[in-house]
Amino acid sequence: VQGSGQGEALIERLVGELARLPGIGQRTASRLAYFLLTRSCAAISPQGATRQAEDLAQALVDASRGIRLCVTCANLAVAEQCRICADPRRDRGLLCVVEGIAELRAFEASGGYRGIYYVLHGVLNPLEGVGPDDLNMTHLCSRLRDVEEVVLALNADVEGDTTALYIAKMLRDHEVRVSRLATGIPMGGELEYMDAGTLARALTERRVLH
Ligand SMILES: [Zn+2]
Fold first, then answer.
1. pLDDT reported for residue 48
2. If you measure from the C-alpha of residue 138 to the centroid of ligand 1, how many angstroms do you get, rounded to a whole number?
3. How far is the CA of 122 from the centre of ligand 1 (A)?
4. What is the 141 CA–ligand 1 centroid distance (Å)?
5. Is the per-residue pLDDT at 1 higher than 60?
6. Ligand 1 centre and the CA of 119: distance in Å?
7. Where are the alpha helices (DSSP H) in the chain?
8. Which of 60, 91, 114, 123 is deepest in the core (most CB within 10 A)?
9. pLDDT above 60 for 116
10. In terms of DSSP bridges, do strands 91-98 and 177-180 run parallel, antiparallel, or are they unpaired?
11. Ligand 1: distance of its center to the CA of 165 in Å?
């Protein structure tokens, strides 16, 4: 068939992009690609064509153009600073270091935290080659003005521990108290999925490292 090579290349490119997403292997990427392409193809379902692929593509373009990272904490933002950093009622003396946006949102949803954040966008993972330069880590020291305490709100797993130790060491020469969430949270339990009460308790019962 004429042009089939070109078609293969188009499909391969889509599968390749999907496979780069976290938690999506080659097989899932292929299934998603076929799903999106057939759902968008009016010939397969003339009545029920959903144009899902184009809707998805448009949502991606709109969101990635309209959303950026806060210059202060790297949270998602529509302006230079996110809503939290721009809020004068937040306590600038308390800074919570989190792995990602999901964890930040979990803390916000718990309702008990009134400080500010710093988002790492990942954790250290030497085995997979993720070092400090691969994360939003180097700017942390320049964000400590007015900060009295840094809470390392990272998961209680190997990567979380490694990252917390690294940052605690990095902050040793700064005039800030450094603490970690209470160990009452279950080992290996992920902050992202913790209920509001458990999160709030882990925060209020945090322990000081130095
Ligand atoms: Zn911010």
1. 52
2. 16
3. 17
4. 15
5. no
6. 9
7. 4-19, 26-39, 52-66, 83-86, 101-110, 158-170, 196-204
8. 123
9. yes
10. unpaired
11. 24
Express each pLDDT in 68-108 by its tens digit: 999 999 999 999 999 999 999 999 999 999 999 999 999 99
Structure tokens at 122: 């990942």
Contact criterion met (CB below 8 Å) for 142 and 169? no
The Å distance, Cα 18 to ligand 1 centre, comes to 29
Q: How far is the CA of 130 from the centre of ligand 1 (A)?
A: 24
How many angstroms separate the alpha carbon of residue 80 from the centre of ligand 1?
8
Q: Can you spell out the DSSP letters for 83-100?
A: HHHH-TTSEEEEEEEESS
Q: What is the mean pLDDT of residues 136-146?
A: 93
> Which are the contacts of 92, defined by CB distance < 8 A and separation ≥ 6?
115, 116, 146, 147
**Beta carbons of 108 and 87 less than 8 angstroms apart:** no
Residue 76 CA, ligand 1 centroid: distance in Å: 8
Enter the DSSP assignment of 121: S
Q: Where are the alpha helices (DSSP H) in 67-195?
A: 83-86, 101-110, 158-170
Token reading at 164? 């917390």
